[in-house]
Design a protein that fits this description.
about 350 residues, alpha+beta, four-stranded antiparallel β-sheet, globular, binds 2-oxoglutaric acid, binds fe (ii) ion
Length: about 350
């Protein structure tokens, strides 16, 4: 189904979003840029990166570098997250979305600007110029801001408590266990990304001492018969943060934009995560690494799809700026620095509209 991608380029009041993501009038003129390779989504075996095989680890790092330059999308296998934890998280998704609507609505993520909790069907527009997304969601953060948390004494938007359903036994423990597992993989990938940019493996580590992770579950209902042509499960967008680690069920529906503007499917590959770079990486690399547009099409065969994206992002005050190995020849980083959490909050507000409900 064709999507008017140009329609995304609305002039909106974006607060402190990085200027890179404020598309200006001139963006409608398509400047000549040298041709890029066609996009495919490679599968990278992370096994050697967890071993003492120095040469094997270097090869993994080289593959990551190439994937990030090409598109910022790659699958990983032998990633260290137990299959049982992955299966269990997809089961939790199905159990959660089966709860009565009232119970889910009591946990709305826009309540008190918590950014944690339930996202009703159509609550978000990932493509702000399109129709609301045909998905339901639920999100939990690794930073649960109770009264004792240092953030609670500061006036930081979007920092609240996690919200949990009472009626599914073991839900919270199992969900938190999954977040922990996927956080270990996030940290590992952050180290490999640093190496892939010729930086020390711990270059990003201070941002991830207490990562601002958002561990989400999503339910995409079957495409309704009366859906409008530009109505999708998730509108075309780039992810806002550092890295996304996507676990998906076996139905498929995710599509990734190629360098020439076409779309390809990124189907489920059993046992893998699909990794993609968020908007912080082009800032860190002055556009060497890509944050690529993607979208989700709901299923036409009356089937429900579940997916579990985890957004692995640095803590709120982490300064996202061009890395020393990525400064362009003219000595000037392509984009000014931004504060990790401020960027995330501005994007949340934009895609969920008026908050505080
Ligand atoms: O559900 C998916 O496959 C992708 C979801 C996504 O792109 C997102 O939540 O940012
Ligand atoms: Fe996304």
């Amino acid at each position: 189904m064709p999507i008017d991608t140009a329609s995304r380029h609305l002039q909106v009041e974006l607060g402190h979003i990085c200027p890179k993501y404020i598309v200006k009038e001139e963006a409608y003129i398509i400047p000549y840029t040298s041709p890029k390779p066609a996009l495919t989504v490679p599968l990278i075996d992370l096994g050697p990166a967890f071993s003492n095989d120095v040469e094997g680890k270097k090869k993994v790092v080289q593959k990551i570098h190439k994937a990030c330059v090409d598109s910022g999308f790659f699958y990983v296998k032998n990633h260290g997250v137990p299959q049982e934890a992955m299966d269990q998280q997809l089961r939790l998704a199905s159990q959660f979305f089966d709860l009565p609507l009232d119970e889910k609505l009591a946990l709305r993520c826009t309540k008190d600007n918590q950014t944690r909790g339930y996202e009703p069907l159509g609550a978000q527009k990932l493509d702000v110029a399109s129709l609301p997304d045909l998905k339901e969601g639920f999100i939990v953060s690794s930073i649960d801001v109770d009264r004792n948390h240092r953030y609670s004494k500061m006036d930081i938007p979007g920092m609240g408590r996690n919200q949990w359903p009472d009626s599914i036994p073991g839900f919270r423990t199992q969900y938190e266990n999954y977040c922990e597992n996927v956080g270990v993989l996030g940290r590992k990938l952050a180290g490999l990304l640093a190496l892939s940019l010729n930086l020390p493996e711990d270059y990003f580590a201070d941002g991830f001492e207490e990562p601002l992770m958002y561990c989400r579950i999503l339910k995409y209902p079957p495409m309704p018969n009366d859906a409008k042509p530009n109505q999708l499960g998730a509108g075309a967008h780039t992810d806002w943060g550092f890295l996304t680690l996507l676990l998906q069920d076996d139905l498929g529906g995710l599509e990734v934009q190629t360098a020439d503007g076409n779309w390809i499917a990124a189907p489920p590959v059993p046992g893998t995560y699909l990794i993609n770079l968020g908007e912080m990486l082009p800032v860190i690399t002055s556009d060497l690494y890509k944050a690529t547009m993607h979208r989700v099409m709901n299923n036409y065969s009356n089937k429900v799809r579940f997916s579990c994206p985890t957004f692995f992002d640095p803590e709120y005050f982490y300064k996202v700026e061009c890395a020393p190995t990525c400064i362009p020849k003219n000595g000037k980083p392509k984009y000014p620095p931004l504060t990790a959490g401020g960027h995330m909050w501005a994007q949340f507000e934009k895609s969920f509209g008026t908050t505080g409900q």
